[in-house]
Amino acid sequence: MKRLQQRPLNTRRSAFTLLELLIVLGIIVALAAMVAPNLIGSAQDAKIQTTRATIRTIEDAFKRKAVKMNGFDTNGSIASLKDTYEDSLGKEQVPLLEETPRDEWNNEFQYKYEAGMVKPTIWSFGPDGEDNGGDSGDDISNLPREEE
Fold first, then answer.
1. Model pTM score
2. Are 124 and 103 a contacting pair, CB within 8 Å?
3. Is 87 helix (H, G, I), strand (E, B) or coil?
4. Which residue, 148, 130, 147, is CA-closest to 139?
5. In DSSP terms, which residues pair with 121 in a beta bridge?
6. Helix, strand, coil proportions of the chain in percent (round to 5)?
7. Are 110 and 125 in contact (CB under 8 A)?
8. Residue numbers of the domain that contains 64
């Protein structure tokens, strides 16, 4: 007669229990809940910093053009920076930018230069894409920021 072999009582399992899996899942969810808000805020800050850097690039391009033309072009626009132009000596100059830049929210930059201004004002409407007149604090420009 054949004997049935019994499993020894001290045999180790090679699988996880449902309780162990739920505990690990709970820890992962708790960590994600703590980290996610910081990552979302960091992404918005990165977009703002990138937009500020783009504004500085546009401002530098206008300064280089002003040097070549012996003064700022009062009729210029940001789009004109991607076109060839003639300097004050009548020589054709290469474009200062490869393409018309856009802010991180894919909106056009705004530009204003009036005679007597030290430098042109360049700004983005910021995350909301609306002109808030600088009151809301989300417009981004090359003007000095007021400390809050």
1. 0.70
2. yes
3. coil
4. 130
5. 112
6. 40, 10, 50
7. yes
8. 20-141
Residue 46 CA, chain-centre distance (Å), reads: 5
Question: How many structural domains are present in the chain?
Answer: 1
Is 10 a domain residue? no
CATH of the domain at 118: 3.30.700.10
Tokens of 136: 């809301």
Q: What is the pLDDT of residues 13-41, one digit of tens each?
A: 678 899 999 999 999 999 999 988 888 77
Please tell me the distance from the alpha carbon of residue 126 to that of residue 148, in angstroms, as a whole number: 18
DSSP assigned state of 14:
-
| Strand 121-124 relative to strand 110-112, pairing | antiparallel
In degrees to the nearest 10, what's the CA dihedral of 91, 93, 122, 142?
Answer: -100
Helix (H, G, I), strand (E, B) or coil at 85: strand
